[in-house]
Design a protein that fits this description.
By secondary structure, this protein is mostly helical. It has one domain: Orthogonal Bundle (Cytochrome p450), CATH 1.10.630.10. It is 45% helix and 9% strand. It has twelve helices and eleven strands. The strands form five sheets. It has a three-stranded antiparallel β-sheet with strand order 1-11-8. Belongs to the cytochrome P450 family. This is Flavonoid 3'-monooxygenase. Its cofactor is heme. It is found in: Membrane.
Length: 392
């Protein structure tokens, strides 16, 4: 309960900062994905570590946060680089490109950094408003409050969980001319929201229905709250349909088969690397009618899949994976996506920039670790609520 309060507080504050930034954009086109990236990154960083990582300008983080961000940059670059040993197993042990050596060195830096943060939290703690704690402090309390039944978390397990959240929720960067550059909007949360807004712009009737629901539940005198989300069934359907058409990780993280087995007539040798094609499953015409069309109503009562969830219980739709290795940041990611989509379409009308129209808006996908737009979504946001909603 303590952590849920702190999560909600951090998320709402960061969404408020994003809303004010968009409202003050004026005639300058806004790169929606990049701004969403900053919002989602800071919200998750505050929940995890109790501190913001980046500002809406070029800085904004403290020294430790900047160090953490730099290591995340290197991690994602190494994770995305072409490594010949991944494709020709006999060459893997040779590490011809030095990727494995760099990853081991980076792992030691991560371990030392997180060990320092752990010790700092143990000594000082990291509390939000009214004494509420961030995720790391809560995990440390689970470490300290052993129940005697083997449920105690070790420091190593805490650090591993934090790294899992980094892999699923933080930024993906690319190398451009030897320099590290942010590829706008490629964080899993922000890219999902960017796809959703693009789809809604292309489908004005669906956007109008979602706004009507929001206006009825929330009104025009305040911003969307997390407590409003359960009362927005059509918005929930929009979110599910976005996860279906545009899963942030089109291929699941790779797993290794511990033993040989046979699945549906296919022999899987021990040691095989396995990936689930999440993208293809969600577009299978044998499972979904008109699978390439954006139809949120398929998840509403009377639709074709009214009871399908995205939390790994229904294999037709598994954007976060399933089973024991389901995404560690799933609940936080789902809630953040819902809150951002609801807040954006409730607070703003969006006109496309650079002479684009809804009919010609590109929906081409780009290659990467996450499913990102080939062209960033550039918009002119126009506030549609009472002026005081956009004030700090």
């Amino acid at each position: 309960i303590r952590l849920s309060y702190w999560e909600a507080y951090a998320e709402m504050e960061e969404v408020g900062i994003l809303t004010r930034a968009l409202a003050s954009a004026g005639q300058t086109p806004a790169s929606l994905g990049q701004m969403l990236n900053v919002c989602a990154t800071n919200a998750i960083a505050r929940v995890m570590l109790g501190r913001r990582v980046v500002g809406h300008g070029h800085g904004g983080g403290d020294k430790k946060a900047e160090e953490f961000k730099a290591m995340v940059v290197e991690l994602m670059v190494l994770a995305g680089v072409f490594n010949i040993g991944d494709f020709i197993p006999p060459l893997e042990g040779l590490d011809l490109q030095g990727v494995a050596a760099k990853m081991k060195k980076l792992h030691k830096r991560f371990d030392a950094f997180l060990s320092g943060i752990l010790e700092e939290h143990k000594i000082n703690g990291s509390r939000g408003p009214d004494g509420y704690e961030d995720l790391l402090s809560t995990l440390i309390s689970l470490n300290d409050d052993s129940d005697g039944g083997g449920g105690r978390l070790t420091d190593t397990e805490i650090k591993a969980l934090l790294l899992d959240l980094v892999e699923f929720q933080f930024l993906f960067f690319v190398m451009v001319k030897g320099d590290l550059k942010i590829q706008a909007g490629t964080d899993t949360t922000s890219s999902t929201v960017e796809w959703a807004i693009a789809e809604l712009i292309r489908h004005p009737a669906i956007l109008a229905q979602a706004r009507q629901e929001l206006d009825s539940v929330v009104g025009s005198a305040r911003q969307v709250l997390e407590s409003d989300l359960p009362r927005l069934p059509f918005l929930q359907a929009v979110v599910k349909e976005t996860f279906r058409l545009h899963p942030s990780t089109p291929l699941s993280l790779p797993r290794i088969a511990d033993e040989s087995c046979e699945i549906n007539g296919y022999f899987i040798p021990k040691g095989s690397t396995l990936l689930v094609n999440v993208w293809a499953i969600a577009r299978d015409p044998d499972v979904w009618s008109n699978p390439l069309e954006f139809r949120p109503e398929r998840f509403l009562p009377g639709g074709e899949r009214p009871n399908v969830d995205v939390r790994g219980n229904d294999f037709e739709l598994i954007p976060f994976g399933a089973g024991r290795r389901v995404c560690a940041g799933m609940s936080l990611g789902i809630r953040m996506v819902q809150l951002l989509i609801a807040s954006l379409i409730h607070a703003f009308e969006f006109d496309l920039a650079n002479g684009q129209s809804a009919e010609t808006l590109s929906m081409e996908e780009a290659y990467g670790l996450t499913l990102q737009r080939a062209e960033p979504l550039m918009v002119h946001p126009k506030p549609r609520l009472a002026p005081h909603v956009y004030q700090s």
